[in-house]
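ok posting inputs for the methionine sulfoxide job
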Amino acid sequence: MVGKLMTVEGRQAEKYERLLPQIEALVATEADPMANLANTAAALRQTFGFFWIGFYRVDGDELVLGPFQGPVACTRIDKNKGVCGSAWAQNNTLIVPDVDQFPGHIACASASRSEIVVPIRDAQGEVKYVLDIDSDQLNSFDEEDKRHLERIARLLSKYA
Ligand code: SME
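and the output
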């Protein structure tokens, strides 16, 4: 009898389960959206250590850089451009296993190999921010990440 082995997916799920109430505690007591996004980026970075984690805010017909953790990044992205602009235009989460295979990917940093972008919506369902997580490894994100990050996005839609 081999002891109960926990899969990589299981460990990730556990991290997300611990993280969600932490983020909720951080944001539910603060009314300032930028403070809440900043702490959420830090909490995600501390938990998962990805290369770049941050937010872009919808500003007219562009996205503008918001709170983030990681190297310097592009400040403005047009609607429909790159992964972030496409997730915004489609109002949908996008998982990109290999950024070199994504037409129009914006290479803010050459180390970025895969990414996930999750929209954060207002009460009317319009996108007001996107959460962008970039990894320096291929294939870093799957449907489990999408499911948990969308829960975080729903939480932030109330507090950011
Ligand atoms: N990867 C993004 C650009 C933003 S940075 O990577 C921080 C994209 O193609 O949308």
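notes: The chain is about 40% helix and 25% strand. Strands lie at 52-59, 62-69, 76-78, 94-96, 114-121, 127-135.
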